[in-house]
What does this fold into?
Amino acid sequence: MVGIPNAASHQSAGNALHTNFNVDYVICYRFSGTGTDFCGSSATTAANTVTDIQESIANFQNLIRALAEVQLETQVRNGDNLSLLVFVKAGSEQRLSNAVYKSRY
It folds into this structure.
């Protein structure tokens, strides 16, 4: 797990805008297929909704596994409406460079 400081621990809220919380990347993972539209009314059947949610969970787990396989550290926090924030940090610059290189070839 990445040790990410709490924004409240900074001297002021303004400082939070000028720091990256010691992470290399932030991934915003949005869950889709929740069965509701933007107004909150039902858009699909309950069976489709459960299937979509299960698929989103499986995809999220695959993302976390893929990051762990290349030895990137992650921490997950709640995002805004139906999203999760995945904070990603490489243990070393060389590890991050190797992961990028391997992903291109």
Remarks:
- The CA atoms of residues 34 and 49 lie 5 Å apart.
